[in-house]
Structure formats: structure tokens, C-alpha cells
Amino acid sequence: MLTRNCLSLLLWVLFDGGLLTPLHPQPQDTVEAEPRENVAPVPGRRSSAQRVKRGWVWNQFFVLEEYMGSEPQYVGKLHSDLDKGVGTVKYTLSGDGAGTVFTIDETTGDIHAIRSLDREEKPFYTLRAQAVDVDTKKPLEPESEFIIKVQDINDNEPKFLDGPYVASVPEMSPVGAYVLQVKATDADDPTYGNSARVVYSILQGQPYFSIDPKTGVIRTALPNMDREVKEQYQVLIQAKDMGGQLGGLAGTTTVNITLTDVNDNPPRFPKSIFHLKVPESSHVGSAIGRIRAVDPDFGKNAEIEYNIVPGDGGNLFDITTDENTQEGVIKLKKPLDFETKKAYTFKVEASNLHLDHRFHSVGPFKDTATVKINVLDMDEPPVFSKPMYTMEVYEDTPVGTIIGAVTAQDLDAGSSSVRYFIDWKNDVDSYFTIDATEGTIATNELLDRESTAQYNFSIIASKVSNPLLTSKVNVIINVLDVNEFPPEISVPYETSVCENAKPGQVIQIVTAADKDLSPAGQRFSFRLSAEASNKPNFTVHDYRNNTAGIETRRNGYSRRQQELYFLPVVIEDSSYPVQSSTNTMTIRVCRCDSDGTILSCNVEAIFLPVGLSTGALIAILLCIVILLVIVVLYVALRRQKKKDTLMTSKEDIRDNVIHYDDEGGGEEDTQAFDIGALRNPKVIEDNKMRRDIKPDSLRFPRQRPPVEDNTDIRDFINQRLQENDVDPTAPPYDSLATYAYEGNGSVAESLSSIDSLTTEADQDYDYLSDWGPRFKILADMFGEEESYNPDKVT
Known about the structure:
Layout: H1 2-16, E1 60-64, E2 73-77, E3 89-95, E4 102-104, E5 110-113, E6 124-133, E7 144-151, E8 165-170, E9 178-181, E10 199-204, E11 209-211, E12 217-220, E13 232-240, E14 250-260, E15 273-279, E16 287-292, E17 304-309, E18 317-321, E19 327-332, E20 343-352, E21 366-376, E22 383-384, E23 388-394, E24 402-405, E25 408-409, E26 418-422, E27 432-434, E28 440-443, E29 454-463, E30 470-480, E31 488-489, E32 494-498, E33 506-513, E34 524-528, E35 538-542, E36 547-552, E37 564-573, E38 580-592, E39 598-600, H2 614-647, E40 653-654, E41 657-658, H3 676-679, H4 682-685, H5 713-726, H6 776-788
Parallel strand pairs: 1-7, 8-14, 15-21, 23-30, 32-38
Antiparallel strand pairs: 2-5, 3-6, 4-5, 6-7, 9-12, 10-13, 11-12, 13-14, 16-19, 17-20, 18-19, 20-21, 22-25, 24-28, 26-29, 27-28, 29-30, 31-33, 33-36, 34-37, 35-36, 37-38, 38-39, 40-41
């Protein structure tokens, strides 16, 4: 059969395909020649005006792909009517593959393929042929285009470009449920023969799945495939060309199919009764046990919800689902007590959260099991009779007063005594003490509600038999108020009244504040003090709602007469004992406009003309201050200038020291200076101010009694000594006043009249002449004075 088919193909190619080309081509294989005009007349040829046919141009040739012969494959022959067979015509070939794939015999026009061709690489070639005169090298025919088509053979098997495949289908699906569509591609020519006609079949995977041979659609072939029995399937698919006939090429691929889960199985407990043992000391909210129901489904279809069926003991326990293990976690809702109840029994129901209505007929998707819990006896700490204690005590309660008690008991079978003590955390706890045996709480210090209104601390009770077992309870003690503080006026304590106020006008609403904890319904009363009730200026109107109004009682007020009023207001509370206080309000008289708006409350505004602005007042005051500063500076400069003149004067006299700049001539020089200045102290009295220092401030000079012209110098010196002794501001600064006594060692004895026992009348200066020439000037001086003043005043 194969030999017959190959022979038929070869004969068709030879005769119908044009491999053997006759000189005169068949009408179905030729194309009429284009009209051709001769450029120059050629002898023996037809006129250029005549139409001629070109019978040598072929529309297409065929060449067999994958040719494996030893000789070049013959494709066809080109021939021109102008070729007489004498070698004057040359055939040329150009275009796709000319010279590399195809060659032409220049003399005969035979075309050969010089290498093997692949249709899947290039299905056809477009070439151009031309006949040229050998001698003139001019074309005898116009260039003509033709096609060489590569003839396909079945040399490519089908291929699954997207394989291998992965697919899924729900378990329990009916027969014919769609799974996946596969597709194979054949590179052969689909328009020629059956080389590219593909047929699909299953080589492995039956009887679970089937495939459509033409479309490649895979479907389920068995009903009720269960994921819990088998989850993964591997199907081998084959695609064969030539329509699946013998000799066709085939390709295969693998399809991995997974059965996805559906909720087709209810949860089931592996046993009907679960036993748990729980210590009675277990904390509320703690997990005391786990139970589990088994569901063969997967994912959300295996999610289980556990519930306790109402019944015996179910209200003491709760159950939740562990999302990771799908176990039921039993937790304690209330504390257990072995002495009260030793065992509990209840039922637990397990059910699926996500149900599939297609499988309701299978039965209820839930299961029930019984849980029995045995309570174990444990040594427990004492239990207080209350979860919290609240007590009250009045402030200033004497130390040691019992204000309440706490009670704790040991509920175990072998009851033990209990000891109490305060859980010391801070200094506040030291205000109270507790009896270790009785649990009574007493004050340890005086309490003050205004300092601390509430105390919060903890009491610890421990078993005597086991001190490590303790329990704790909170105690709150509220300190009750005792009325010990009088009420006071809330701010402000100062208000104002207009000069043009009318009688009965409310100038201020006052309220009261009490440092004590005012009970509900506390009332405050307001009134004037007794000494102020008779004055006709202001009054207090009690509104009986814990407020009062300050009202005027006069028709107008004058700031010139009185700027401030002090109003004593008495406030009483309604607690026991009654407390009261007198609060003084300051009322300032202000200038207001006709609407009662305050314009000015300053004192200086009284003396200013109406309409003078504040800026103008400030400017006037500033000018006055500047003038005062200028006057003070002027006076200070004048005094400083006068002082400098006196300090530099050559007539400057400091006490009894004469200042002069010339050098004396010795003992014989009686003209060096005038000693009359010492004899006449009045010269010094003319200088009222001290000129040896710069005074810090101006002060009046010391007043001295007038000095007589003939006063003795001794009295003058004594007077200056007394002034310096009693003057606290006297220097010395940079001057030294020396009043010396020569002593008893001198032959001439003392020349001073200080401490002298004789008076001026008893003095005789004649002995100075006997002391020698050194005392001659002094003897002459006193001798002259005696002749001048007979009274001898020294």
C-alpha cells in the first residue's frame, strides 16, 4: 500500500507538477506572454507591431522537501520560442536562492535544486528568469517572475506547546464534567494531505477520564470519584497526525489532575466519652482539657465548631476551637470548689461551619460526645467574705478608733486559722492598722479630709498552716467631712461703681466657696456686718440661691470725696456647727458714660479736664520730668564749678593749717606769712562748706555760734574738737587735723594753752625773751598783742 501511494505521488509530480517540461507548455500551466516590441528590426523576424506569445514563462514549479538523493534534484525547464537550439540564447536566473539553492543551465534552461529544502523553514521561493542573446548580450525576452513551491511531506510530529498540564475537578462530580482542554500543534502543511490533521487519545488515565479526539477536551468518565480515596491522577494524552492512521507521527503530554475537596463528610468523635481531671485551684479562663472530632475533608470543609449542650454543669465551662488543630479547647468560666461539687458531666456537639446543600441527604453533619470532669482537691488560700470592702470615718477621729473589719476563711477540709496584715506600698498605708487575728481596722493617725479624702489599700490574709497561701482584698476608706472651715467669697474681691449710679443698682453678683465637702443641699446666706448696715452707701441682697447682689443705696458717688469703699459681707453656711466669715469687698468709684460703661478708674483722672486723652496725659508728665532733670543737672554743675574754684584758691584754710607756696626765710624771716589768720578764726567761718572732699549729696553746713574777734585760739581749737567728736559724717578723708601736746621733756615746756591750769590773765610772755634768739619772733609777737589788747584773750 505504501509503495502504491509513493508511486502515485511521483507520477503526479512528474506530469502534473511540471518537473518534465514540454517545449509547448500545457494551457493550465502557462501564462500568456506579455506583448513585446522589437526596438530595431531584426532580419528574418516579425515586425515589431505584431503581437507574439511567450510560451516559456511558468507560473510555479514544485520541489520535494527533504530530498536526500546524490544528484541535484531536478525542478523544471525553461525554454523560449526564440531558442532555435543553436546556442545563441543564454538563460539567467535571479531572486530567492538563485545560485545558492537553485541553478539553471544557461544553454538548456534546466533548473536544479542543489541542496535539501525544508518547507517548515521556507515554503516557497520567488525567482526571475530571462533569455539573453549570447552575441549582443541583449535580452530576447522581458524578465519573467515565477515561484518554486516546496512540496510538504509528513516530517513533523504534533507537539503540545503548553504541556505538561495541571488541572483540577471537584470530587463527587458527575460523568462528563469538564476538566481541561489540551491542544497539539503540527508544523506540516495543513492544506496538503493529512500531514497536519491531529487526533487525540488517552494512553493512561482510563477509566477515570476521557478526551474528545478532535477538540482535546478532557472530561470525567466515572461518577462519584472521592478525594478521600484518591486525590491525584496522572493522565497521558497522545496527539497523532495523518488523522490517526497507521504511519502517522505522534506526540504525548502529561496532565496532572487533582480532585478538590467538597464537604461530603460530617465530623465524627473517635469515642463517645471523654474523661478530664481538673484541680479546683484552676484559674478562670484557663484551658482545662481538649477533645477532637475527626473530619476527613480538607480546608474550610474540615472546619469544626464545638458547642456545649445545655445541661448539668455546662454553665461552668466554655469551649472554643483551635484553628490550627481543629480541637475543642475546654475553658473554665467560673471557679471550681471541691468542697461544693466534685464532678461535672455535660455533652459537646461538633458540627461543620460550611455545609454543602448537595450532600444534605447523606445525614446530619454533626456529632455528639459526653465529657466528664472530676474536680481534684487542692490546698487553697483563705477566701474573703467580700470582693471589696468600703468603710467611712469622720476626719479628726481619735487615733486608735476601730472603723471596720475584714473577714477571711479557710474553706478546705482541714480548716486553718487566718492572719491579716496590710500590704504596705506607700506611706499612706501607715494611717491605719489591722488586728492580725480579728481583722479589725483602726486609725493610726489623725485624718484630714481636705488633705486626703479617700484611702485605698490592700489587706492580705494568709493561712497559719501554710503562710505561702495568701489572698488579697482591696479596702476603700472614705473620710467624711466635719464642718470646720467657714465659707468665703469667690473671686473677685474688688468691684466698681459708677459715679452716676442710681439707688438699687446691682454692681456685682457674689458667690461663696467652702473648703469643706459641702453636703447635698448646702445653703449659704449673705448679709452686711453690723457696723456697715447703718451706712447709706451699699447693701447686700441675698437671692436665697447661694448668690447675692451688691446694690447701691445712693444716687451717685463722687471720686473727689471718696474713691474707695470697703464693704464687709458676712457669709454663713448651713452645716453643723454653723461657720461664718466676714469678707471685705473693695468698691472703687469710676467715671462712666451714660450707658454705664466704665471710662476711667485711675486716681489721677479726677484732676484732669474732661476729654483729655491718656496719651496727652503721658506727654505732659514726660515733659515735666524732663524739665526737672534739666534743673537738677544745672544746679549740680553750678555747685561743682564753685567747689573747684575754692579748692584751687591759694587762700584755702583747712582747720588751723595755712597753705602757702613760697619758701620761708628761717627764724629771722618775719614777713613769710601773716599769723593773724590764726588769731582771727572768723576767716575760717566764712567758708561754710568743706573743700577738702567732694560731698556725696548736698547738705547744709554746720551752724556754729559766732566767734568773737578776740576769742582765744584755745577756745577755737576746743570748739573744733567738739564739733568733730559729735559729727557722725566728719572726715578724715584725705586731710589730717593734728592737735598735739609736746609733753614734759621740753626745757621751754608746752607752748600750747590746752590743759593749762592758768587763765589768760595769769600768763606772762616776758620770759620768751630770755629763751634766746630762736624765740625772739614769738616774744615780739605776743608782746605786740599785749600792747594791742590789754585784756589778753588767748
